[in-house]
Amino acid sequence: MKAASIFSTPKDLPDHERQKRRHMLASLGIAWLVMMQVMMFAFPGYLRGEYIGTESLAMLDTAIIIMNWLSFALTMPVLLYCAWPIWLGVFKKSSSNSVRVNMDWPVALGILTAFIPSVIATINQQGEVYFESVAMFVAFLLTARYLEFCAEQSARYSKIGTPAILEQERAIMTAKADKIAFAFVVIQILLAIASGIVWYLFIDRSHALPVLVALFVMSCPCALSMAVPTASSAARAIFLNNYSFTPEQQEFVLSLTRKTANQNLYGSLAWHILMAPLAMFGLVAPWVAAITMLVSSLAVAWNSWRLYKKFHNQGFIIGPDWTAGKAVQG
């Protein structure tokens, strides 16, 4: 019998859920393909400073204008198709039938703050464009959300053999993570707006937009939202592969799950807090901010995977005969 894994597809997964997974994977693939192509089109713009005062500058500017229009054309499908769930999330209504601020708001603000000025610069044929940052942001965001979705889907449809106490722990940890993520997003948005204003009024107007975009990108709570789903999915896989656990062994796994979830949550929070001042001082470009978001999300997924592999690699997946507290330590 094949061992369950943290991101595995449950055998009893309904067809409509399988279709959701395929659709997310297709959107993810398109976003990554566009991202790589737009990054190639952005390359001439990076070289412009080296050609100022040379005879080749006029030819390079013409190439940049063409590349900007191509980047604009390629980015549109990413915004209208790949990022469609983000726009739906922005206008999602609460139980009281009113639109409320949620985790998609900072993402949408970051995308629009980078995209609209880029379109204006492309039409006017002057100014900086950030199409590659938009494409990277969407591609990396979808990567994090796909991992989160697979982990949640795996946990939701593979509850056979999973202790009820795990679902209770999951609910408690999720409520805690949501509160922290919401506070983080609000503070990060306020910092982004304040920093953009300070740069525009007192430091360098031309650099205000990159600072604002970078901070908006970093306000995406992708890693924070993955903290609990991935950790609980790892615990679910452990329980499914060790259905004969005693209550003491179950509690030991739960304690490790709580520890892993907290590591994911506070580790990603510390990473964002560390990077935020650098972005405020203008040291983090928007595309670099997108990479930092991806790094933190992948780190969360890896840490949760490490919890699962810790049991799997030491032979505790089949027929555990260890005592509580000795499985991982010994």
From TrEMBL:
Membrane protein topology class: Multi-pass membrane protein
Cellular location(s): Cell membrane
Domain of life (superkingdom): Bacteria
Claim: Nucleotide-binding is one of the keywords in the record: no
Keyword annotations: Cell membrane, Ion transport, Magnesium, Membrane, Phosphoprotein, Translocase, Transmembrane, Transmembrane helix, Transport
Transmembrane segments: 24-43, 63-84, 105-123, 180-202, 208-228, 287-305
Protein name as it appears in the record: Uncharacterized protein
Annotated organism of origin: Advenella mandrilli
